[in-house]
Amino acid sequence: MHAKPPLSDRSQGLLFCLIGALLLTPDALIIRWLSIEHNEVLIWRGLFFSLGFFFITVFRHKGKTFRAIHHAGFAGLISGFLFAMNTYFYTQALQQTSAAAAMMIISTAPVFAAIVSWFCLKEKISLPLLLTILATLFGMGIILSDGTGINSLKGNLMALGCAVFMALNFNWARYKSPKDITPGLVFGGLMVLTLGFFTTPSVNASTLEISFMFLSAAILMPIGFVLLQVAPRYISATEVSLFILLESVIAPIWVWIGLGEVPSSTTLLGSLVVLIALIFYNLMLIKSRTK
User: Fold this and answer.
1) 119-159: per-residue pLDDT in tens?
2) Residue 211: CB partners within 8 Å, gap ≥ 6?
3) Structural contact between residues 82 and 165, judged by C-beta atoms closer than 8 angstroms
Protein backbone atom coordinates (compact mmCIF):
# COMPACT_ATOMS: atom_id res chain seq x y z
CA MET A 1 0.00 0.00 0.00
CA HIS A 2 1.15 3.48 -0.81
CA ALA A 3 1.23 5.96 2.03
CA LYS A 4 -1.10 8.89 1.63
CA PRO A 5 0.75 12.07 0.70
CA PRO A 6 0.84 14.67 3.47
CA LEU A 7 -1.60 17.55 3.29
CA SER A 8 -0.33 20.65 1.53
CA ASP A 9 0.16 23.81 3.57
CA ARG A 10 -3.01 25.28 2.07
CA SER A 11 -5.04 22.15 2.84
CA GLN A 12 -3.79 22.17 6.44
CA GLY A 13 -4.75 25.81 6.80
CA LEU A 14 -8.25 25.21 5.45
CA LEU A 15 -8.74 22.16 7.69
CA PHE A 16 -7.62 24.09 10.75
CA CYS A 17 -10.11 26.84 9.87
CA LEU A 18 -13.01 24.43 9.37
CA ILE A 19 -12.52 22.59 12.67
CA GLY A 20 -11.73 25.80 14.54
CA ALA A 21 -14.86 27.59 13.34
CA LEU A 22 -17.13 24.63 14.17
CA LEU A 23 -15.78 24.45 17.72
CA LEU A 24 -16.74 28.10 18.26
CA THR A 25 -20.41 27.73 17.29
CA PRO A 26 -21.95 26.63 20.65
CA ASP A 27 -20.51 29.61 22.53
CA ALA A 28 -23.14 32.14 21.40
CA LEU A 29 -25.91 29.98 22.87
CA ILE A 30 -24.05 29.71 26.19
CA ILE A 31 -23.45 33.48 26.41
CA ARG A 32 -27.09 34.27 25.58
CA TRP A 33 -28.28 31.71 28.16
CA LEU A 34 -26.22 33.05 31.08
CA SER A 35 -28.07 35.16 33.66
CA ILE A 36 -25.00 36.80 35.24
CA GLU A 37 -23.57 40.29 34.66
CA HIS A 38 -21.15 40.91 31.80
CA ASN A 39 -18.16 41.67 34.02
CA GLU A 40 -18.58 38.38 35.88
CA VAL A 41 -18.70 36.61 32.52
CA LEU A 42 -15.28 38.15 31.84
CA ILE A 43 -13.89 36.74 35.10
CA TRP A 44 -14.88 33.16 34.34
CA ARG A 45 -14.03 33.34 30.64
CA GLY A 46 -10.66 34.91 31.38
CA LEU A 47 -9.84 32.26 33.98
CA PHE A 48 -10.93 29.35 31.80
CA PHE A 49 -9.34 30.80 28.66
CA SER A 50 -6.00 31.07 30.48
CA LEU A 51 -6.21 27.47 31.67
CA GLY A 52 -7.32 26.19 28.29
CA PHE A 53 -4.63 28.00 26.31
CA PHE A 54 -1.97 27.01 28.85
CA PHE A 55 -2.80 23.29 28.65
CA ILE A 56 -2.90 23.46 24.85
CA THR A 57 0.58 25.02 24.96
CA VAL A 58 1.73 22.20 27.28
CA PHE A 59 0.26 19.61 24.91
CA ARG A 60 1.96 21.15 21.87
CA HIS A 61 5.36 21.90 23.40
CA LYS A 62 5.64 19.32 26.22
CA GLY A 63 8.71 20.11 28.37
CA LYS A 64 9.41 23.31 26.42
CA THR A 65 6.16 25.02 27.43
CA PHE A 66 7.66 28.02 29.20
CA ARG A 67 10.29 28.39 26.50
CA ALA A 68 7.47 28.55 23.93
CA ILE A 69 5.66 31.21 25.97
CA HIS A 70 8.90 33.18 26.30
CA HIS A 71 9.60 32.77 22.58
CA ALA A 72 6.20 34.27 21.75
CA GLY A 73 7.56 37.37 23.47
CA PHE A 74 6.17 40.84 22.92
CA ALA A 75 4.43 39.68 19.75
CA GLY A 76 2.53 37.15 21.87
CA LEU A 77 1.53 39.87 24.32
CA ILE A 78 0.17 41.98 21.46
CA SER A 79 -1.80 38.98 20.21
CA GLY A 80 -3.09 38.39 23.74
CA PHE A 81 -4.20 42.01 24.04
CA LEU A 82 -6.04 41.88 20.70
CA PHE A 83 -7.70 38.65 21.81
CA ALA A 84 -8.73 40.22 25.13
CA MET A 85 -10.34 43.16 23.32
CA ASN A 86 -12.03 40.77 20.92
CA THR A 87 -13.44 38.82 23.90
CA TYR A 88 -14.69 41.98 25.62
CA PHE A 89 -16.56 43.24 22.55
CA TYR A 90 -17.86 39.75 21.71
CA THR A 91 -19.47 39.12 25.09
CA GLN A 92 -20.89 42.65 25.20
CA ALA A 93 -22.42 42.20 21.75
CA LEU A 94 -24.08 38.88 22.56
CA GLN A 95 -25.60 40.28 25.76
CA GLN A 96 -26.91 43.48 24.15
CA THR A 97 -28.22 42.51 20.72
CA SER A 98 -29.65 39.48 18.94
CA ALA A 99 -27.36 36.53 18.27
CA ALA A 100 -28.09 36.69 14.54
CA ALA A 101 -27.18 40.39 14.28
CA ALA A 102 -24.05 40.00 16.43
CA MET A 103 -22.73 36.94 14.63
CA MET A 104 -23.38 38.30 11.14
CA ILE A 105 -21.63 41.60 11.94
CA ILE A 106 -18.70 39.66 13.39
CA SER A 107 -18.58 37.66 10.16
CA THR A 108 -17.52 40.87 8.37
CA ALA A 109 -14.05 40.39 9.88
CA PRO A 110 -12.66 39.47 6.40
CA VAL A 111 -13.57 42.95 5.20
CA PHE A 112 -11.42 44.52 7.88
CA ALA A 113 -8.74 41.84 7.46
CA ALA A 114 -8.49 42.75 3.78
CA ILE A 115 -8.32 46.47 4.53
CA VAL A 116 -5.62 45.96 7.19
CA SER A 117 -3.70 43.60 4.87
CA TRP A 118 -3.86 46.20 2.10
CA PHE A 119 -2.79 49.05 4.37
CA CYS A 120 -0.16 47.30 6.52
CA LEU A 121 1.00 44.22 4.61
CA LYS A 122 0.66 45.77 1.12
CA GLU A 123 -1.53 42.89 -0.09
CA LYS A 124 -3.55 43.86 -3.16
CA ILE A 125 -7.34 44.14 -3.10
CA SER A 126 -8.83 42.45 -6.16
CA LEU A 127 -12.00 43.63 -7.89
CA PRO A 128 -14.08 40.71 -6.49
CA LEU A 129 -12.84 41.52 -3.00
CA LEU A 130 -13.63 45.21 -3.46
CA LEU A 131 -17.18 44.36 -4.56
CA THR A 132 -17.48 42.04 -1.57
CA ILE A 133 -16.35 44.80 0.79
CA LEU A 134 -18.93 47.24 -0.59
CA ALA A 135 -21.76 44.69 -0.48
CA THR A 136 -20.79 43.57 3.02
CA LEU A 137 -20.72 47.13 4.31
CA PHE A 138 -24.16 47.69 2.78
CA GLY A 139 -25.57 44.58 4.46
CA MET A 140 -23.94 45.52 7.75
CA GLY A 141 -25.54 48.96 7.48
CA ILE A 142 -28.96 47.33 7.20
CA ILE A 143 -28.31 45.28 10.34
CA LEU A 144 -26.98 48.30 12.26
CA SER A 145 -30.13 50.24 11.40
CA ASP A 146 -32.39 47.59 12.95
CA GLY A 147 -33.65 48.75 16.32
CA THR A 148 -36.55 46.33 16.61
CA GLY A 149 -36.97 43.48 19.09
CA ILE A 150 -33.87 42.70 21.15
CA ASN A 151 -31.52 44.43 18.71
CA SER A 152 -29.66 47.53 19.86
CA LEU A 153 -27.28 49.92 18.14
CA LYS A 154 -24.83 49.68 21.05
CA GLY A 155 -24.76 45.88 20.84
CA ASN A 156 -24.34 45.97 17.07
CA LEU A 157 -21.44 48.42 17.41
CA MET A 158 -19.86 46.08 19.98
CA ALA A 159 -20.07 43.29 17.40
CA LEU A 160 -18.38 45.60 14.89
CA GLY A 161 -15.56 46.21 17.38
CA CYS A 162 -15.18 42.45 17.79
CA ALA A 163 -14.83 42.03 14.02
CA VAL A 164 -12.15 44.73 13.86
CA PHE A 165 -10.01 43.25 16.66
CA MET A 166 -10.41 39.75 15.24
CA ALA A 167 -9.16 40.96 11.86
CA LEU A 168 -6.23 42.75 13.50
CA ASN A 169 -5.22 39.60 15.37
CA PHE A 170 -5.33 37.42 12.25
CA ASN A 171 -3.18 39.92 10.36
CA TRP A 172 -0.77 40.18 13.27
CA ALA A 173 -0.35 36.39 13.27
CA ARG A 174 0.29 36.43 9.53
CA TYR A 175 2.75 39.32 9.84
CA LYS A 176 4.73 37.38 12.46
CA SER A 177 4.58 34.09 10.51
CA PRO A 178 6.26 31.59 10.77
CA LYS A 179 6.80 32.56 14.42
CA ASP A 180 4.24 30.86 16.68
CA ILE A 181 2.67 33.54 18.87
CA THR A 182 -0.32 31.48 20.02
CA PRO A 183 1.15 30.92 23.54
CA GLY A 184 0.54 34.64 24.01
CA LEU A 185 -3.18 33.89 24.20
CA VAL A 186 -2.54 32.69 27.77
CA PHE A 187 -1.83 36.32 28.64
CA GLY A 188 -4.94 37.36 26.72
CA GLY A 189 -7.03 35.23 29.06
CA LEU A 190 -5.31 36.78 32.08
CA MET A 191 -6.05 40.26 30.72
CA VAL A 192 -9.74 39.38 30.40
CA LEU A 193 -9.73 37.94 33.95
CA THR A 194 -8.08 41.09 35.33
CA LEU A 195 -10.57 43.38 33.60
CA GLY A 196 -13.51 41.43 34.99
CA PHE A 197 -12.01 41.09 38.48
CA PHE A 198 -11.58 44.83 39.04
CA THR A 199 -15.05 45.72 37.74
CA THR A 200 -17.19 43.01 39.39
CA PRO A 201 -18.47 43.58 42.95
CA SER A 202 -19.58 39.98 43.51
CA VAL A 203 -19.65 36.50 41.95
CA ASN A 204 -23.11 34.98 41.50
CA ALA A 205 -22.78 32.30 38.80
CA SER A 206 -24.42 28.95 39.51
CA THR A 207 -22.53 25.66 39.32
CA LEU A 208 -24.33 24.82 36.07
CA GLU A 209 -23.39 28.17 34.52
CA ILE A 210 -19.76 27.74 35.58
CA SER A 211 -19.73 24.22 34.12
CA PHE A 212 -20.95 25.39 30.72
CA MET A 213 -18.53 28.33 30.72
CA PHE A 214 -15.72 25.87 31.51
CA LEU A 215 -16.74 23.62 28.61
CA SER A 216 -16.77 26.54 26.21
CA ALA A 217 -13.91 28.72 27.47
CA ALA A 218 -11.47 26.05 28.68
CA ILE A 219 -11.98 23.40 26.01
CA LEU A 220 -13.91 24.28 22.85
CA MET A 221 -12.92 27.92 22.38
CA PRO A 222 -9.16 27.61 23.07
CA ILE A 223 -8.82 24.71 20.64
CA GLY A 224 -10.87 26.59 18.04
CA PHE A 225 -8.96 29.85 18.47
CA VAL A 226 -5.55 28.17 18.37
CA LEU A 227 -6.48 26.43 15.12
CA LEU A 228 -7.65 29.75 13.65
CA GLN A 229 -4.55 31.49 15.01
CA VAL A 230 -2.21 28.92 13.44
CA ALA A 231 -4.03 28.88 10.09
CA PRO A 232 -2.63 32.26 8.84
CA ARG A 233 0.79 30.61 8.74
CA TYR A 234 -0.52 28.55 5.80
CA ILE A 235 -3.21 30.72 4.15
CA SER A 236 -4.02 34.44 4.05
CA ALA A 237 -5.65 36.24 6.98
CA THR A 238 -8.58 37.16 4.73
CA GLU A 239 -9.27 33.50 3.96
CA VAL A 240 -9.09 32.62 7.65
CA SER A 241 -11.60 35.33 8.52
CA LEU A 242 -13.98 34.01 5.87
CA PHE A 243 -14.43 30.85 7.91
CA ILE A 244 -16.02 33.00 10.60
CA LEU A 245 -18.96 32.97 8.19
CA LEU A 246 -19.58 29.35 9.17
CA GLU A 247 -19.90 30.31 12.83
CA SER A 248 -22.17 33.25 11.99
CA VAL A 249 -24.63 30.93 10.25
CA ILE A 250 -24.61 28.00 12.69
CA ALA A 251 -24.41 29.87 16.03
CA PRO A 252 -27.79 31.70 15.66
CA ILE A 253 -29.38 28.35 14.77
CA TRP A 254 -28.24 26.94 18.12
CA VAL A 255 -29.69 30.03 19.85
CA TRP A 256 -32.96 29.65 17.96
CA ILE A 257 -33.22 25.94 18.89
CA GLY A 258 -32.12 26.44 22.50
CA LEU A 259 -33.78 29.75 23.42
CA GLY A 260 -36.40 30.33 20.72
CA GLU A 261 -34.76 33.61 19.63
CA VAL A 262 -36.01 34.52 16.15
CA PRO A 263 -34.18 37.34 14.29
CA SER A 264 -36.17 40.25 12.83
CA SER A 265 -36.86 40.59 9.10
CA THR A 266 -34.47 43.57 8.86
CA THR A 267 -31.64 41.58 10.45
CA LEU A 268 -32.39 38.64 8.15
CA LEU A 269 -32.29 40.93 5.10
CA GLY A 270 -28.95 42.45 6.10
CA SER A 271 -27.59 39.01 6.98
CA LEU A 272 -28.64 37.68 3.58
CA VAL A 273 -26.77 40.49 1.81
CA VAL A 274 -23.62 39.77 3.85
CA LEU A 275 -23.96 36.02 3.36
CA ILE A 276 -24.35 36.28 -0.42
CA ALA A 277 -21.41 38.70 -0.65
CA LEU A 278 -19.07 36.43 1.31
CA ILE A 279 -20.17 33.30 -0.55
CA PHE A 280 -19.54 35.15 -3.82
CA TYR A 281 -16.03 36.02 -2.72
CA ASN A 282 -15.37 32.46 -1.58
CA LEU A 283 -16.41 31.14 -4.99
CA MET A 284 -14.16 33.68 -6.71
CA LEU A 285 -11.26 32.56 -4.51
CA ILE A 286 -11.84 28.92 -5.38
CA LYS A 287 -12.08 29.76 -9.08
CA SER A 288 -8.82 31.73 -9.02
CA ARG A 289 -7.02 28.92 -7.13
CA THR A 290 -8.04 26.30 -9.70
CA LYS A 291 -6.76 28.24 -12.70
Assistant:
1) 887 777 778 888 888 888 888 888 888 766 677 889 989 99
2) none
3) yes
| Residue numbers of the domain that contains 72 | 13-289
Q: Angle 38-61/221-230 helices, nearest 10 degrees?
A: 60
Q: How far is CA 86 from CA 89, 161, 258, in A?
A: 5, 7, 25
Tens of pLDDT, residues 167-209: 898 888 888 878 888 889 999 999 999 999 888 877 889 999 9
In 145-236, alpha helices (H)? 153-176, 185-197, 207-214, 221-230
| Number of structural domains in the chain | 1
Whether residue 3 is contained in a domain is answered as: no
pTM score, two decimals? 0.82
Closest CA to 246 of 12, 16, 17, 15: 17
Q: In this structure, is residue 194 part of a structural domain?
A: yes
In a domain, 109, yes or no: yes
